[in-house]
Amino acid sequence: MPKLRTLAAVAGAALLARRAMRRRIQVSPLWPMPALEEPTSGRPRSRALRLLVTSHEEVADGVVQLRLEGHDLPRWEPGAHLDVVLPSGLVRQYSLCGDPEDTSSYTVATRLVPDGRGGSREVHEQVREGMELEVRGPRNRFPLVAAPSYVFVAGGIGITPILPMLRTLSDGVEWRLLYCGRDRASMPFLEEVEKLGGGDRVTVVAGIPDLGALLAAVPDGAAVYCCGPEGLMAAVEERYPGVHLERFAPRSSAGGAFEVELRRSKRTLTVPADSTVLAAVRAQLPDTAYSCEQGFCGTCQQRVLEGEVDHRDELLTDAERSDSMLICVSRARGDRLVLDL
Fold this sequence. Notes:
Elements: H1 2-27, E1 48-60, E2 63-69, E3 80-85, E4 91-95, E5 105-111, H2 119-125, E6 132-140, E7 149-155, H3 159-168, E8 174-181, H4 190-197, E9 202-206, H5 211-215, E10 223-227, H6 230-239, E11 244-246, E12 258-262, E13 267-271, H7 277-284, E14 301-306, E15 309-310, H8 318-321, E16 324-326, E17 331-332, E18 336-339
């Protein structure tokens, strides 16, 4: 009996050790490198879900909508998005555009970008009904804030995070939407959007919109939301600096060359003007964690010991930016950074 109790104790201790190790690796993908007092290198990922593609439908010229079904799915609020792991392993972020109350499925849509980085082409050409996809999330960095009124500006596929917002707003709330695109056939969910607007709240423009006329009449206290091509968002932000923006692609990562010291690895790297810190680091430390390469998911977050960062991500809070960066898109403001790597 004593021997059996000893074996049981050893087996229990081993099980606890394995669980602790799994938790440690999940929290810090760079493990077993020395742990920080407050680890910031790679944030815990959302629980991964395997969902069934039950619909792959073209809802506008060049736009495909996916319905992903599961059971007891996490609830979400308008503005939220999913990290979708595509069959090739690419990770892309897509705004949820279905019903937030539906816990049996998620709906996303993406436009084909022929000269893009491959994610949209894979969704259009390789994802099919009956296939399972891994997703993480939902996460929300574009929430609908409380306001007495709203002004929305959407360009093309940029309607996807805004559509659930329009559905959510109560009848008594004042709102207006400027929805622009190349032509009406290329604008997803256009019929539903026009019905929601009741004929007088929605302005549809095929071509370049008159932003000055729209934003000059923004009511006091109104919340302004914009999602679409970078040029459209930059124009809205120039006219209305307080706008809430949702980006589908990172800000440009181009800039001047600079040096990066990896303090723990005792190495100094040069980041060329046309490359990224992530690429330079992975050339020396190929196991460095990363995922989306667009400044959205946070997997490549690293602690900054010295130097000023030109933050180009769409994720970190001001507090996080004080001592860390996403090395897939952000760069140095000067000629040198020191990372705790």
